[in-house]
Amino acid sequence: MNQLNPFIINSWFLIPMIIWIIFWKGSSLWIASKNNQKGWFLIILIVNTFGILEIIYIFFVAKKKWSDIKEVFTRKS
After folding, report:
1. How many domains does the chain fold into?
2. Range of the domain at 43
3. What confidence tens digit (pLDDT) does each residue in 10-32 have?
4. What is the pTM assigned to this prediction?
5. Does residue 38 lie in a domain region?
């Protein structure tokens, strides 16, 4: 019998999910720290909502636009 390893099958879902979570969590933590919002920083750091809380924070609480998110990753030091 030729069976695929379950880890290989699950990794096709797991890897994009990890990238999604790291992107949104990193962006929201960066913005919260820049805005000196320690409460939001701690909540976002501790609670894992697969990017949902992070997206709500960025666009509705911090009132950032997509261009602001892109700037975080493209700004030259």
Report:
1. 1
2. 21-74
3. 677 788 888 999 999 999 999 99
4. 0.72
5. yes
